[in-house]
């Protein structure tokens, strides 16, 4: 049996296009650290199915690798780190708020 790497459920908000993360209390948050860290494959499949059923709220749900951090889950792949920063076409949104 393959070892499971911890994950978070991520998608894009349907109307705004923002990157969102599924929380343990079934909310969609724009903050990665608020995401539910999933540590079991079967539970990850259940959470992904729950997310995918919300077609009126999100689009493109998938499981992204993550790890436990001091303030909540942290992305482990450069693509997911990039997605936490928001659009890169000009300085606005999350990029402006981080400074």
Automatic annotation (TrEMBL):
<protein>
    <recommendedName>
        <fullName>Sulfite reductase</fullName>
    </recommendedName>
</protein>
<dbReference type="InterPro" id="IPR021270">
    <property type="entry name" value="DUF2849"/>
</dbReference>
<dbReference type="Pfam" id="PF11011">
    <property type="entry name" value="DUF2849"/>
</dbReference>
